[in-house]
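dude i think i finally got it to work??
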Amino acid sequence: MTAINDTQAQQIQKMTIGTDKYPMPLPPKFDNKQQQQQYEKQRLAAAFRVFAHYRFDEGLAGHITLRDCIDPESFWVNPLAVHFSKIRASDLVRVDHKGNILEGKHPINNAAFAIHSRIHHARPDVNAVAHAHTTYGRAFSSLGELLKPISQDACMFYENHSVFDTFTGVVADLSEGDMIAEALQGHAAVILQNHGLLTVGKSVDAATANFVMLDSCCHSQLLAQAAGELKLIGHEIATKTRQINGSDLVTWGNFQPLYQVMLAQDNSFLD
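look at this
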């Protein structure tokens, strides 16, 4: 789990009331790597429940991966053909960058390996990657353009995402995964033209919350463009807004209410 630096904490504290008496929630710390691994697997399983909640499932498509904290050259991914709403921590599969399954009893989606393996390899700062073919993501991706800063939420992705404008069909080999990783350009998200959306984060909490927000922003812009001319937020304010709502602590925090809902509905993902 990534530590939150003092500057980030001070920024968030300005957005809250009562933090002296009632401390704001922060990412947990762990006594050992085994404890951290189990915790993070449970968060990954919860992330799939969130995807199911938002109906981000489309047949065999869609995957979220998490770099293993004990063996960083491997990552956890969802089992093939198991619905997101049914995934438990014990169902997850760990695979290395050569495609060897190290833990788990299920096959995995080859596209998940081809895309996510190369991003994890190219971006050591990224611990989690989320991708799905959502309704609004597919629709927006067909435009082949960036999101515009039309709202506070959209500013999170201002100069913080890119477009991958090459579509060759179902991703089946590592070379296209390398191209997607390059297109990501150090950003938090990439719009895969004619394909869908992909987000990353320093935690699975952040990557998942980023994806939910990106899909929502695509939806908002599609609605706004259909209604009339867009009024954009200026560069300086959009940048200032992104520095806050795109910070590590806020992106991690955005997942916490979602996790609480999943936990209250059905906590079987913890198993």
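The chain has a mean pLDDT of 92.
im so relieved honestly
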